[in-house]
Specification:
The chain has 173 residues and is of the alpha+beta class. It is built from two helices and twelve strands; from the N terminus they run αββββββββββββα. The strands form two sheets. Strands 3, 4, 5, 6, 7, 8, 10 and 11 form an eight-stranded antiparallel sheet that branches. Strands 2-1-12-9 form a four-stranded antiparallel sheet.
Length: 173
């Protein structure tokens, strides 16, 4: 009888522990100011892009990121035209010019945490797994956000579901 009680208590402790151990890699978007507006996304292809309208040349910029060993890595950037504030290729980076866009690739810049301000005019968007989400539908304009890729616990995922923080198909654009 004592052995069964010990086994039951051990199983309960293990289950509770598993709820709080970060096991599930996810893309996380947080408000830097209050760190309460958490949005957790499961991305299958381990790549995403952030697009926005450039403040000077008014063209659309598309920054392509990949997840490599749980790090966010800037892979390439694509834009319509060169102008003030646009970067030039450096080192091993390559430039491709087509009729539709200019691309700088092979950037391979590791970014621990990606920070950005949700723009008023910039119309920031994040795209992954064929979905596009306007960041101003998640955060108020001029909110400083942090984008990171890390493991989260099952408890954190369930909490976000309960708080309706994980976007569903009907909330995405």
């Amino acid at each position: 009888m004592l052995k069964k009680i010990i086994i039951c208590i051990s199983v309960i402790i293990i289950i509770i522990a598993l709820l709080f151990v970060p096991l599930f890699p996810r893309l996380i978007l947080n408000s830097v100011k209050n760190n309460k507006d958490n949005f957790i996304f499961n991305i299958n292809r381990k790549e995403f892009l952030i697009s926005y309208t450039h403040s000077v040349n008014k063209g659309r910029i598309r920054d392509y990121y990949i997840i490599n060993n749980n790090n966010i890595v800037l892979d390439k950037t694509r834009f319509v035209s060169y102008g003030a504030g646009m970067s030039d290729p450096e080192g091993n980076e390559k430039i491709i010019i087509t009729d539709d866009y200019i691309e700088i690739n092979n950037i391979n810049k590791k970014i621990k945490d990606l920070y950005l301000f949700v723009g008023i005019v910039a119309d920031h968007r994040i795209e992954f797994d064929g979905k596009e989400i306007k960041l101003n539908t998640l955060f108020k304009p001029q909110t400083n956000i942090k984008i990171e890729y890390k493991k989260v616990s099952l408890f954190k995922i369930i909490s976000n579901i309960m708080n309706n923080k994980i976007l569903r198909e009907n909330n995405e654009t």
